[in-house]
Amino acid sequence: MATTPLVTSANQVKAATTTNKQTEMYNFVRNTFKKHHVRGIVMVVKDGVPQTISYGYAWYGKRIGNGSSKVVYPTASLQKVVTAAMVVQLINETKGTNKEFTQNTKISRWYPNLKNADSITVGNLLTHTSGIMATGTEIDRGYNYSEDNAIKWVINNINASSSDEIGNYHYNNSNYILLTGIIKQITGKSYEENLQTRIINKLNLQNTYLYQNIPKTMTDPISYYSNGGKNYQNATYLKKSLVSQIPGAGNLFSTPEEYYKIQVGLADGSILSKDDYYYMTHLKSKVINYSGGLYLYNKDNIKNAYGSFMGQHFGTWMQLTADNQNGIVMFLNQTDDNENDEKDVGYEILQHIKPNTFVKR
After folding, report:
1. Quick check: keyword Membrane in the entry (predicted)?
2. What's the topology of domain 38-353?
């Protein structure tokens, strides 16, 4: 009896190869997390193909795993680029109106009672070169702030604190909290409303929220500490009072998949055009490679942002190639509270994705 020869199409071979590569990446990432005693979730992008890999529990007590559809993660300072993008949108939209402003506009227009405001520009806030050195934005004051009250506290705190010379780089949440207030004053709408219309709706994001808007059917993760010993120790969580203190600088929650969509939207016309993205990341006031919420490396071919909350065991790190074809979006909820240790985890994965392409720190 004649037999029919087995015919394997090129597409079948490609699909099988892709599956094998993704299985290998899945095992590598989980083993890397295990080796470093971290827990969390990471979107790995390799040659334009995204793959989400999770490890451990987002909430150990309820056995809710990282990667559960119920969980949205704090983006921490990875939110700053979103705030910066909305400012650039407004720079474009206000051209030719009585609200027109640029990166060179002094912020005394919006904050006449703020120390040094007549010398600090919008660009200084966007590049952390305002000279503002005030501390305390991440120390929980035990009070649930509105956007307005959070901004008022920051103004008073800056006025009562010492400052450095304008033009010197000092990473400080206060800069982006002030930008949140500028967005509100220009539009007459809250940061929350602007985020919804300018980012979430434009990208059709379904699982990206400010903290106060996380649905009851969803949860943010519990965080845990591990220094190489036992897992799921020293459990803590982000309290509403703490998160409410840092609007525009650390109150956004999302998933790796949706945060990746935001990164793509920064230059494909969804949020900003390529020219606008360049403007945001090459502000005249920048003195290091930070501008508009991102660090750029390797002749602008790599973009990078890190975030955490002081003593809260969370670590967030995004590093992608400029074309968004390779890299990671990593949200950790068990760490040893050491930024470099967290980045070591991500860098091992990045080296596995595309060796000698990314930066270690």
Report:
1. yes
2. Beta-lactamase (3.40.710)
